[in-house]
From TrEMBL:
<protein>
    <submittedName>
        <fullName>DUF1795 domain-containing protein</fullName>
    </submittedName>
</protein>
<dbReference type="InterPro" id="IPR014894">
    <property type="entry name" value="DcrB/EagT6"/>
</dbReference>
<dbReference type="InterPro" id="IPR016123">
    <property type="entry name" value="Mog1/PsbP_a/b/a-sand"/>
</dbReference>
<dbReference type="Pfam" id="PF08786">
    <property type="entry name" value="DcrB"/>
</dbReference>
Amino acid sequence: MKLKLIPAALVMLTFVACKNKPTTKDHTSDELLEMAGKAPGMNAGSGRFTVKTPTGWTRMDTVISRIQYAYFVAPPEEGNPFQANVNIITQQLQAGFTLQQYVATTEKEMSTLIQGFKKQEEGERTIAGEKARWIKYRFVHHETEMTLNGEIIILVKDNIAYAITLTTPKDALDKYSKELEELLHSFQA
């Protein structure tokens, strides 16, 4: 279960961006979760969104280190120690903080705190009628040295940021794009 929670830790650290200064990439997943859990406005959108679980996946709503998130896990693949997953977390934005600023700050924090972070692509789209920005990236999990891929999609509604993140084994983002799209098309805030 610990390895499944690692992507949540890596994405949750991005919510620290609004108040805390960047540090180094030497943090464990537990330390990143603890830092993110102390971020101002964390969980402001919990209970304010609905989303359908992708077909064949399992949903778990949970709290870890004071962070509430919806966590969706793909069926296990034989011989692969990592299960693809999507997590959704929320945070109240500071007054006047825009989607563009939030995404830029998130990317800066990810490049500072995540070992081997490398942005691959970025763009815009619409989710639930709201403008959203996305970043596809690759990173190395600190404790296991496993290379993983991620796609984070961030939208803001009523001054609350919703971060929806798909994390997969190396080079497997496209394999799970159908399930991510199924989830995104059902998302309502």
